[in-house]
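Example 3.2
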Amino acid sequence: MAFIEPVVLSGRHATLEPLALEHEEEIRLAVADGELWELWFTTVPKPEGVRDYIEQLLLQREHGEAFAFAVRDSANGRIVGCTRYLHLDEANRRLEIGGTWYAQRAQRTGINTECKLMLLGHAFEKLRCIAVEFRTDWFNKRSQAAIERLGAKRDGVLRNHIIMQDGRIRDSVVYSVIQNEWPGVKKNLQHKLASRD
């Protein structure tokens, strides 16, 4: 049995469903909203690269390396982004939440907060994780601020961590939420969502 089995996670603002080739056209429309591939410190496909992107993520799922979700906006039923569990470590009951991006129209809404609440809840309460990581580019200050607002704590910086597609060598800022912090983080996220209603 795999560490992560296919699952649909549903909330008031968003639904997370296992990424599939059937999502290709909607993912293409979502990345075009805001030309997300132009953000040099993230890895978002260009519209013409969406099929390869999905196929690569499905291959990672098949190899037990990651599990990607399409993010569906509950208000209109449209796909507005993608997120995933990665660096799956069943033996040590750890994983990372990352590879997240949202169409411009979904940014600064309750969607990301609810997605993180659902992903963290599933990781701690169903998969029995003892730690969940978040990693982001040193230059992505907006992402760092968002991760800190979730309640994750900064662990440190992995220097010269990843060679990016353009050849730049990325430093990654690492955050985590550990098991005994989850109840407080959960309340924080629930409060943030309630204040949006």
